[in-house]
Amino acid sequence: MAMTSAARLSELAVDQPTRVDLDGVPVCLVRHGESVHAVHDTCSHQEYSLSEGIVFGGAIECALHGSMFGLEDGAPDSLPATKPIPTFAVQVDGDDVRVDVEHQTNDAPWPDHF
């Protein structure tokens, strides 16, 4: 795994999406409970930044059309999206949040745009 420093844990507000760009990949980080999740920052329905959305439970809602995606698996939970979004492995080491954008943790299609 090629982990890249993405953010400081102390700077991530709980249930507040944060966009970071890692090696040219837009990533949406969400600190939810005791975990930090990393998903591709692009909605699979239309090219829109998920970090502009709202977190509900274990999912993030796209602010454009309301599609919901699971933070753990990237699966769409509501229409109009029907395709999952890529998810990435996260490591937290002290205050350092690292993400591996070279290897997805699910089999979602890579946005080009979907």
Write up this protein.
The protein is mostly beta strands and 114 residues long. The chain has one domain (4-104): Rieske [2Fe-2S] iron-sulphur domain (Rieske Iron-sulfur Protein, 3-layer Sandwich), CATH 2.102.10.10. Helices cover 0% and strands 43% of the residues. It contains no helices and 9 strands. A 6-stranded antiparallel sheet has the order 1-9-8-4-3-2, with no helix packed on it.
**What general outline do the C-alpha atoms trace?**
globular
Alpha-beta classification: mainly beta
CATH level 3 topology = Rieske Iron-sulfur Protein
CATH superfamily: Rieske [2Fe-2S] iron-sulphur domain
Domains counted in the coordinates: how many?
A: 1
Provide the β-strand percentage band. 35-45%
Largest sheet: 6 strands, antiparallel
| CATH class category | Mainly Beta
Q: Helical amount among residues, as a percent range?
A: under 10%
Are there runs of 5+ residues with pLDDT below 50, and where?
A: none
How far is the N terminus from the C terminus? 25 Å
Q: Over all CA atoms, what is the radius of gyration? A: 13 Å
Describe the protein's topology.
Elements: E1 4-8, E2 18-22, E3 25-32, E4 35-40, E5 54-56, E6 59-61, E7 68-70, E8 87-93, E9 96-104
Antiparallel strand pairs: 1-9, 2-3, 3-4, 4-8, 5-6, 6-7, 8-9
Offer a concise description of the structure:
The chain is built from no helices and nine strands. The chain is mainly beta. The protein has a single domain, classed as Rieske Iron-sulfur Protein.
